[in-house]
Amino acid sequence: MALTYLITGASSGIGEALALAYGARGANLVLAARDEAALERVAKGCESLGGKALVVKTDVGDPSQCDALVQKAIERFSSLDVVVNNAGISMWSRFDQITDISIFERLMRVNYLGTAYVTHYALPHLKKSRGLLVGISSLTGKTGVPTRSAYGATKHAMQGLLDAIRIEVKDEGVGVLVVSPGFVKTDIRAKALGPDGKATSASPREEDDAATMSLEECTSIIVRAIDHRKREVVMTAKAKVGLFAKLIAPNLVDRIAARAVKEKQK
Ligand SMILES: NC(=O)c1ccc[n+]([C@@H]2O[C@H](COP(=O)([O-])OP(=O)(O)OC[C@H]3O[C@@H](n4cnc5c(N)ncnc54)[C@H](OP(=O)(O)O)[C@@H]3O)[C@@H](O)[C@H]2O)c1
């Protein structure tokens, strides 16, 4: 029987690529994001590959919309096997240059609370299917990264939330996977909020392709981790070494993070 995957942030980037990967396996897909036209385009792509897709326009920052999302998913497909909390927005500014402090609340609402809300409504169904709960976090959820204070805080929060839930639901057969990518080639940086709370394209990483993972590689790593019900994926070898190094030489890891970002705003 086809598995059912609910993916938030499925209108572009990593979420879209995951949806198409599971569409090609003939899966049932529940696609959530705010841009309904983009979701319809992704749904068509999934269906042309052999999957079945349900589009649910959803702002994950609104708990009642997350409730409706899960209800519609169950009405259409009866069960949920994998829930991927992928919806996210980013920011790009030194903390001391932020002029619109509301970006902290805006990012927390989508990246962290959105994950908590969707998980709250989806978890009873994952318990029934002994399914898998997934969070697409970030390396900024593992260590401090300059210019990403608000964003990194949301990803640290997401990691803490999912780590706690993993322990709580282990005996009920639900797995919890946290994925921490580094830089991946998507449009996230073009939409990132700048110091004034407006979208900026100030990221210095756009030009630096060598340090940016392709969307295809990122997607195939996530699909493999979901297939194997892993608990954690830290996406680059350098980052894995860095996380060990942080235990004995945290200042060195800070310097590596600073260099990786190449602060423009100094
Ligand atoms: N790209 C990277 O370098 C990178 C690195 C580490 C982690 N990540 C994480 O990967 C995830 C996907 O990012 P991406 O790189 O694929 O970026 P993306 O192409 O910008 O995708 C972000 C997705 O989130 C959705 N979204 C934003 N606000 C939302 C809201 N309020 N409600 C529902 N959906 C919302 C967007 O759809 P709508 O605008 O249609 O709502 C879009 O589908 C994010 O959680 C991000 O933090 C990305």
Descriptive tags:
9 helices, 7 strands, seven-stranded parallel beta sheet, 266 residues, alpha/beta, binds NADP nicotinamide-adenine-dinucleotide phosphate, Rossmann fold
Please describe the topology of this protein:
Layout: E1 4-8, H1 13-23, E2 28-33, H2 36-48, E3 52-57, H3 63-77, E4 82-85, H4 102-129, E5 132-136, H5 149-169, E6 175-180, H6 188-191, H7 215-227, E7 232-234, H8 237-248, H9 250-261
Parallel strand pairs: 1-2, 1-4, 2-3, 4-5, 5-6, 6-7
The structure holds NADP nicotinamide-adenine-dinucleotide phosphate.
Spatial ordering of strands, largest sheet: 3-2-1-4-5-6-7
Q: Count all strands and give the number.
A: 7
Which fold name corresponds to the CATH topology? Rossmann fold
User: Largest sheet, described in full?
Assistant: 7 strands, parallel
Number of helices: 9
Overall structural class, as computed from helix and strand content, comes to: alpha/beta
Give the cofactors and ligands: NADP nicotinamide-adenine-dinucleotide phosphate
Tell me which CATH architecture applies here: 3-Layer(aba) Sandwich
CATH superfamily placement: NAD(P)-binding Rossmann-like Domain
Instruction: Please give the CATH class.
Output: Alpha Beta
Provide the residue-averaged pLDDT: 94
Number of domains: 1
Percent helix: 40-55%
Percentage beta strand: 5-15%
Distance from N terminus to C terminus (CA atoms, Å) equals: 55 Å
Order of helices and strands: EHEHEHEHEHEHHEHH
Evaluate the radius of gyration. 18 Å
Using the alpha-carbon principal axes, give the shape: globular
Regions with pLDDT < 50 over 5+ consecutive residues?
none
